Automatic annotation (TrEMBL):
This is Adenosylcobinamide kinase. It catalyses: adenosylcob(III)inamide + GTP = adenosylcob(III)inamide phosphate + GDP + H(+); adenosylcob(III)inamide + ATP = adenosylcob(III)inamide phosphate + ADP + H(+); adenosylcob(III)inamide phosphate + GTP + H(+) = adenosylcob(III)inamide-GDP + diphosphate. It comes from Candidatus Ornithomonoglobus intestinigallinarum. The active site is at residue 48. One of its GO terms (biological process) is cobalamin biosynthetic process. One of its GO terms (molecular function) is adenosylcobinamide kinase activity.
């Protein structure tokens, strides 16, 4: 089963996804994509570790090329936004226009499909970064565009899509 869980920052989407994953039997892998790049990132990573303690997850880290992760069972990918940022700013990637954005979206989506083929269930957490209406610089606009494309692509292939708002989950698909 492929499940997409979206929501705003601190909406409760990660806890919902963890509980959803815990409901499946067998091996549970928490595929962490956040690079520990500073104190605030380290604190957030530690918070997520505390929150999933006792839920039976094994943790694996994979920052780019998630299709190459060696996993099985139920996999919780936390989160798609980190994968996008890691891929965009890996040093190997140059996004100057729509063609590069499209190619990177296809690459990440193919990685998602490859990852999904390696496991029984894949739950993907993705931030909702589309509603604040503020203007941003070109790189951030490309990130938002890429996140939008990938959410659409993933949702179209997903068995279930959930949106979490203020700790309340609503099934969209």
């Amino acid at each position: 089963m492929l499940i997409l869980v979206t929501g705003g920052s601190a909406s409760g989407k990660s806890e919902f996804a963890e509980n959803k994953a815990a409901g499946f039997g067998g091996v549970k892998i928490y595929l962490a994509a956040m690079k520990p790049f500073g104190k605030s990132a380290a604190e957030r990573i530690e918070k997520h570790r505390r929150n999933r303690a006792g839920k039976g997850f094994e943790t694996a880290e994979r920052f780019t090329d998630i299709g190459g992760a060696k996993v099985s069972g139920t996999v919780l990918l936390e989160d798609l936004g980190n994968v996008i940022a890691n891929e965009m700013f890996s040093g190997d990637t140059k996004i100057n226009g729509d063609t590069e954005t499209e190619l990177l979206a296809e690459k990440i989506f193919n990685d998602i499909l490859t990852l999904y083929k390696s496991c029984e269930n894949l739950i993907i957490v993705s931030d909702n970064v589309f509603e604040d209406g503020c203007g941003y610089g070109a790189e951030t606009e490309k990130y938002i565009e890429l996140a939008g494309r990938l959410n659409i692509m993933t949702a179209s292939s997903a068995d279930e899509v959930w949106e979490v708002v203020c700790g309340t989950a609503e099934r969209i698909k």
